[in-house]
Amino acid sequence: MFWQIGELKKMYDKYKKLQDALKNVIVRAKDNSENPIVMIDISAEMKLKEVQIVDESYLSPEKKSQLEAAIKTAFEKGQQKAQEIAQEKTKDILGFDPSNLANMMGGWAMPNIPGLTG
Known about the structure:
The protein contains three helices and three strands, in the order H-E-E-E-H-H. It has helices spanning 2-23, 64-94, 101-104; strands at residues 26-30, 38-43, 48-53. The chain starts with a helix and ends in a 14-residue tail after the last helix.
């Protein structure tokens, strides 16, 4: 029984270390335009830290949809990169690949339940 408590403490310490590592990783992403319209900073724990409008000419009402698209693009790029980093840090710190969790659990996967899956 006491060995289980020790194992739980080790796992808690690893998760705490992972959480601290993810909190301190910031990804900067730009939209896809040749001259960036926006830049965003997002942490590896998927928290949006900052949005910068680099080209203020897009603050005009005529360019609203372009600005919105640029923000969306930058956020998606940053989010994807942050997820990749989080996955690598998880492998390094916890010792397993979170994307392979279903295989680790004997191939279990979420059943296809109408209305719950897309």
